[in-house]
Design brief:
Layout: E1 6-10, H1 13-19, E2 39-42, H2 45-63, H3 67-78, E3 82-86, H4 87-101, E4 106-110, H5 116-130, H6 141-147, E5 151-156, H7 162-168, E6 178-188, H8 192-202, E7 209-213, H9 219-226, H10 242-245, E8 261-265, H11 268-278, E9 284-285, H12 291-305
Parallel strand pairs: 2-3, 2-5, 3-4, 5-6, 7-8, 8-9
Antiparallel strand pairs: 1-6
Helix pairs in contact: 2-3, 2-4, 5-7, 8-9
Length: 309
């Protein structure tokens, strides 16, 4: 069962603003165009969706006869910049957009970069390598840094800063400037609480039940609904209480008969949030942020609990 936690609202104006300069440029003889940014960064499908909405908007205006928007769309067709994506799902969504609007661009990261930390390292290596041919022996360090264009990071209102911090704090010869623009906002869906309660009620009798969380948002409500948000120092709550036994690491897996609900996270961001903010350790954290990665983690966990190789 799938329980939507968030409602997302796209904001296309920041994307449109980034491409406004194209309405005043010409396409060069070698069919390339100059762009303010050297590449784009995406860490979620929501950001890709907002980006696609902006391009759809530009395309519809261009089709209606607007010369400036038509020129922007022509420039996008000739744009050759890297598109950096976290995880396979974001890369797949981005690939659909690229095929429609940015056929000469390339996607880097994807499945090989399942977290922001990994993608930041990918960007440092890939983006700096792309500028190596532009550097001559006569250039000073300041001139080398100035050659690099900044990257445009399309993100939500709430996000980790690991990528911009890593890129902007790298050694001077590798440092990359990043401009962040908020292209969507997320809020808890008004029907989330009731939908969650219904889903947990329907599955309450299952011999084994896994709850997979994809975002830090809503996890506190999840634990409360499960009855797991308890204070071990509260009167009447102790190691013999079934709610607390569920979270205890007992010898010989003796809590196997008591416990039938387990928690898996799509990746380290949600796992770390639950540990740091809620003092709660998930049972499984997917090594790859994908349905296949989650399933593999669950299979491995269940085999271990049952004593299977």
């Amino acid at each position: 069962m799938y329980v939507p936690v968030l409602e997302h609202t796209s904001h296309i104006k920041p994307v449109l603003s980034a491409f406004e300069a194209f309405s005043h440029v010409q396409i060069y003889e070698d069919a390339t165009v100059s762009f303010t940014y050297g590449g784009l960064i995406f860490t979620s499908q929501r950001a890709v969706e907002a980006f696609a909405s902006a391009l759809d908007h530009l395309s519809s205006i261009a089709d209606s006869g607007s010369k400036s928007e038509r020129l922007i769309m022509q420039c996008l067709e000739h744009l050759t910049i890297p598109l950096y994506a976290v995880g396979p799902a974001t890369a797949l969504s981005l690939n659909h957009v690229m095929e429609r609007f940015l056929p000469r661009c390339r996607i880097s990261g994807g499945e090989a970069a399942g977290t922001g930390e990994i993608l930041a390292e990918v960007i440092l290596e890939d983006y700096n390598a792309s500028y190596a041919e532009s550097i001559t022996g006569e250039m000073t360090e300041t001139e080398v840094i100035r050659v690099k264009k900044p990257l445009l990071f399309l993100t939500g209102a709430k996000h980790r800063d690991i990528i911009p911090v890593t890129l902007t704090s790298a050694p001077s010869e590798q440092r990359i400037d990043v401009q962040e623009v908020t292209v969507y906002t997320s809020n808890e869906a008004p029907y989330f609480a009731s939908s969650l309660a219904t889903a947990l009620s329907v599955t309450a009798s299952a011999p084994v039940r896994w709850v997979v969380v994809f975002s830090p948002t809503g996890v506190d409500r999840l634990l409360s609904t499960l009855g797991w948000r308890v204070d071990r120092h509260m009167t009447g709550i102790g190691p013999d209480d079934p709610k607390w036994v569920l979270r205890e690491s007992l010898p010989d897996n003796s809590n196997w008969v008591v416990r039938h609900t387990f928690i898996a996270s799509i990746g380290p961001t949600t796992r770390d949030f639950m540990k740091k903010k809620l003092d709660f350790e998930v049972d499984v954290c997917a090594e790859r942020p994908s349905p296949e990665g989650v399933w593999q983690g669950i299979e491995d966990y269940m085999r271990t609990r049952r004593g299977l190789p």
